[in-house]
Structures are given as C-alpha cells and as structure tokens.
Amino acid sequence: MRAVIQRVSEASVSVSGVVCGQINQGLMILIGVEESDDQEDVSWLTQKIAGLRIFTDAEGKMNESVQDIKGEVLVVSQFTLHASTKKGTRPSFIRAARPEHAIPLYETFVAAMSERLGSPVATGEFGADMQVRLTNDGPVTIWIDTKNKS
Fold first, then answer.
1. Which CATH number characterizes residue 26's domain?
2. Which of 6, 18, 74, 106 is least surrounded, with the fewest CB atoms within 10 Å of its CB?
3. Residue from 39, 47, 80, 131 carrying the catalytic annotation
4. Of the listed 6, 46, 78, 146, which one is catalytic?
5. HEC readout, 92-127
C-alpha cells in the first residue's frame, strides 16, 4: 500500500458537486492499493500513520500525532499512486490492484484507522471521479510505502 499523508487545517472531497467527506484539523490520506497488499500492510500502515508525530506541541516542535491532538482523518482512494513512469510519457498502472482486491483492503484500512483513533474517518467514494480540496498546514506532506518499511 502506498499513502500520501498531508497535515491539513481543513479538507474535503466531493463527487458530482456534493461533499461526501469533510474534516477540520488532521490528516488527509491518499491511499493506493496494489495486488500484493494484504491485511498485514493495512495493520502496519494504520499503526504508522496514527502514530506519526507531525503536529506541533506547545513548544512548536513536531512532536504530536493525530491521536494526540484528537485530529480528524479523511481517506481518499487513489490508484494513481502506483503509476509507473519508467517508459515513455504515459503512466502505466499495472501494479494498482483491481477493484475486487482493492475495495476490501481500502474499507479495512478505513475501519482500522477509525478503530485506532476512536472516531469516525471521513472518506471519498472508491472509484469515483472526485474533487479534493485541502489546506496543507506547514506544508507537511509524507509518502509511505508498505513495501519499503526499513
């Protein structure tokens, strides 16, 4: 699984002009699933993201997690995170999981993140043409790939 995590002061996702997910301070997570991903990837990634100390503490240091600040989370599926641009100028998405594999893992990720945080997680609509709006706070943007844990 690949994730792009952005610390935000606010974020929302819309489908056909209707907002389907919206948060205030917290994390905007773009998540991509590949065919070789499994439950172990979900568990590792949710633990890693929930514990990332990327929010500032009282001394102005990045020392608190989204859990610590009781922040919100918005998760949006994005198969293009598995784009390969090695050949030519048209990306290949061959490594991105097909919906029958990706949807259950995406839903498991959302449920696991919600359980870890103890609060609901906002989402987009898997496979839909979505419009994402956000205010990146910092800016802070972090990329994580479960196939590169070390």
1. 3.50.80.10
2. 18
3. 80
4. 78
5. ECCCECCHHHHHHHHHHHHHHHHHHHCCCCEECCCC
Split into its structural domains, the chain has a count of: 1
Q: What is the pLDDT of residues 17-31, one digit of tens each?
A: 999 999 999 999 999
**Any domain includes 150:** no
Is the whole-model pTM more than 0.70? yes
Question: Is there a catalytic annotation at residue 78?
Answer: yes
Per the structure, the complete domain to which residue 31 belongs is given by: 2-145
Q: Annotated catalytic, 93? A: no
pLDDT tens per residue, range 114-148 = 999 999 999 999 999 999 999 999 999 999 999 99
- Give domain status of residue 10, yes or no: yes
- Residue 66 falls inside a structural domain: yes
Q: Is 90 exceeded by the pLDDT of residue 73?
A: yes
Q: In whole angstroms, give the CA distance from residue 27 to residue 8.
A: 6
Q: Does residue 126 have an active-site annotation?
A: no
